[in-house]
Automatic annotation (TrEMBL):
This is EVE domain-containing protein. It comes from the Bacteria. It comes from Photobacterium jeanii. Keywords: Phosphoprotein. The keyword Phosphoprotein applies. Residues 3-148 form the EVE domain.
DNA sequence: GCCAACGTTGGC
DNA sequence: GCCAACGTTGGC
């Protein structure tokens, strides 16, 4: 099973919200590279690090699993939604989402620590100017980050 | 709030 | 197909 990292702004949707809901769709991905990964590679059973961005405590905060593979993100059709895309249509949807299920919180592994770890230097996350909201994580990187939590 | 980095758009 | 302008992301 593959492993991934999903970014979210906790002011909009946090790991705590996911825990309360237990399951959630992952809507609002509006980047072609991220979309293509969801479409082509993200499968039921894959594990996902949840990452909090644009907030006080930036970093990896928990784990979820994929429970539903790519299907159309209906927010793209809703003019009231911030994720509305006027160029998309139900007949030819442009954007998709997956569903995930909460697994557990992790003790925060801050971006600062991720950047300081040479074993993680190849992660898109720690590269300069990174903007990818969904990215693959290798088994080795996954284990390294788990080790950094001290929780395994 | 600032600003660097990046993706997208659109004129040509 | 190039590339400048623009909008967005995201750390700080």
């Amino acid at each position: 099973m593959a492993k991934w990292l999903f970014k979210t702004e906790p002011d909009t949707f946090s790991i705590d919200t996911l825990k309360q809901q237990k399951v959630s769709c992952w809507e609002g991905v509006r980047n072609y590279q991220a979309r293509n990964m969801m479409r082509d590679a993200i499968k039921v059973g894959d594990e996902v690090f949840i990452y909090h961005s644009s907030c006080k405590d930036v970093g990896v905060v928990g784990i979820a699993t994929v429970i539903k593979e790519a299907y159309p993100d209906h927010f793209q059709f809703d003019p009231q939604s911030p994720y509305f895309d006027p160029k998309s249509s139900p007949e030819n949807p442009r954007w998709i989402m997956v569903d995930i299920e909460y697994q557990r919180h992790l003790r925060l592994v801050s971006l600062k620590r991720l950047k300081a770890n040479p074993a993680l230097a190849e992660m898109p996350l720690v590269k300069r100017g990174n903007r990818l909201s969904i990215m693959p994580v290798t088994d080795a990187q996954w284990q390294e980050i788990l080790t950094m939590t001290g929780q395994f």
